[in-house]
Structures are given as structure tokens and as C-alpha cells.
Amino acid sequence: MKRILTYGTFDLLHWGHIRLLKRAKELGDYLVVGLSTDEFNEAKPGKQPSYHPYEVRKLMLESIRYVDLVIPEMTWEQKRQDVATNEIDVVVMGSDWQDSPRFEYLRSHCEVVYLPRTEGTSTSEIRRDLLFEAIEYMREDEEQKPSAQPPAAQQAPAPPPPGTARLRSLGTTPETRLPPPPRRD
Q: What is the SS3 assignment for 149?
């Protein structure tokens, strides 16, 4: 039996995630997913907190037919032990991790394969799109409300919608040009 291992946060599960899991499973017979815990995600520099807590993300992954086992990813250093404990033959990651020392050192313990990312989708893009859509809905609602406020007050920019405190750092208008995501080393 050929055993495959991949890692990720798998927050706001989307078709890019499903495609990665499907392609990883096609490389073997048994797929183990190392799912980043909430605490591990919060410790990563530049990483936004997960929308869904670990237990919800785990439940979603366990529901996918390609996934055989979900284990917690709590540290960068645990990967060699995960490979040994789960008798892994191949570690599979997205191509954005290519040549990263976080995974390259595993080559002395198993095969390491990098699969191309799915173009046109990412959790970061989904978060931005949802934030910008919420801002646009809020602006439309404000424009449709009759107002007794003086004209100067009507022209003030609307605050970000409630519940988006974690996303405010991404920008507050759809016209905002966002920097690329942080490099993964």
C-alpha cells in the first residue's frame, strides 16, 4: 500500500483544495492530511486566523472521499515524525512550497512531490472577494436609505462591515491594490 501525506489549513474549503486532495490520492492508496491547528496557524507570521476552527475543518476534510486520515499539524518540526509514524511513501505539497527547506529535508525519508496550484482560486482571494462584496452591499444599502444627515456626512466613507475585523488589514475598498501573499520559507 502506497501512503501519501499532505499538509494545509484547508480553511474556506474550495475546488483548489479538492483538486489537490484528489491528485494527491491518485499518487497512492491511502491519503493522510496534516491539518494545521488553530494555534499553529496563529503562530505563522503573516497568516490570517482561520475562519473555521480546527474541529470544523477536520470534519469537512473527513467528509471528502479522497481523505483517509486527518492528523493535527502543530509544528513545522513534526513532519519527519509524521512520515515515520504513518509509514508515508510520498509527501505532496502545492508548487508554492517548491524547494522550501520545510519539506525538502524529507527527501531522505520519502519521496517529495510538488503539484501545480489550481489557477484562479485561493482562500486569500475568496476572503478578499467576500470582503469587497460586503463593502459594496453596505454602500448600496447606504445609498438607498433616506437620510436626514447633512450632505457632508453622507459623503464620508462607510466603515468596514461588522464581522470583518480580521480582514480589515487587506484593504477597505475594492479599488485597493493588495500586496502579494507572504513568501513561505
A: coil
Q: Which residues of 113-152 are buried (b: 16+ CB within 10 A; e: fewer)?
A: bbbeebeeebbeebbbeebbebbeeeeeeeeeeeeeeeee
* pLDDT of res. 149: 58
Report the candidate in 83, 64, 60 with the shortest Cα–Cα distance to residue 6. Answer: 83
Task: Please provide residue 92's backbone torsions phi and psi, each rounded to the nearest 5 degrees.
Answer: -115, 130
Is residue 122 predicted with pLDDT exceeding 90? no
The type of residue at 182 is: P
Beta carbons within 10 angstroms of residue 105's beta carbon:
12
Contact 110, 90 (CB under 8 A): yes
Nearest to 122 by CA among 96, 83, 155: 96
Question: Amino acid identity, residue 160?
Answer: P
Q: What is the enclosing helix (H) or strand (E) of 79?
A: helix 79-85
Name the residue ranges covered by the structural domains of the chain: 3-115, 123-170
CATH homologous superfamily of 3-115: HUPs (3.40.50.620)
- The mean predicted confidence, pLDDT, of the chain is 80
pLDDT in tens, 60-112: 999 999 999 999 999 999 999 999 999 999 999 988 888 888 898 999 999 99
